[in-house]
Amino acid sequence: MDFSWKQEYSQLASQFLKKHFGSAQGVTHTFPCMREDYPWNRPLGNVVDSRVPAKNNTEYHGLESYAMQYHATAQYEDAYQLWILAGMWRREDMRANGFDDSGHIVAIEFCVKQALYNQALNLWQKKHKWVITSSS
After folding, report:
1. How many domains is the chain partitioned into structurally?
2. What range does the domain containing 71 cover?
């Protein structure tokens, strides 16, 4: 099965971003990625982007954490959506920084794989709704 990123995932991610966070700014506010205690005004020598030492990619790690929490509580539709968002965020970070190594590609494929798994679980869950009846 192909777990590579598809254009349709980007379109879905835009919808899911708006639904869950309103905008990209909602994600960065939910998962702050810059340390407040970082000495922003201090010269750092040959560092191309002084934010790099202070950034720890909490955005996509946070999205993945939320996706796992949704999965653990059988909220598969939301887990699917958050995995797509995490994959999109990883992909955009990879593109913005010019990364093309297999580790980053595998991480995106992992997000897609988890998304598709949760999508399948969501469909199964809707098909087999649990009925709780009172024993009284």
Report:
1. 1
2. 7-127
Residues 129, 127, 114, 33: is their CA dihedral positive or negative? negative
SS3 label, residue 37: coil
Residue 34 in 3-state DSSP?
strand
- Segment among 2-6, 13-17, 44-48, 117-121 with least mean pLDDT: 44-48
Q: What distance separates the 2 farthest-apart alpha carbons in the chain?
A: 74
CA distance 80 to 67: 7
Assigned domain for 101 exists: yes
Write out the two tokens for 44.
Answer: 């750092």
pLDDT for 6 beyond 60:
yes
- Domain assignment present for 11: yes
DSSP code of 54?
G
pLDDT at residue 11 in the model: 96
Sequence-distant (6+) residues with CB within 8 A of 119 are 76, 77, 80
- Take residue 127 and report the two structure tokens written for it: 């098909």
Share in percent of the chain as helix, strand, coil (round to 5): 65, 0, 35
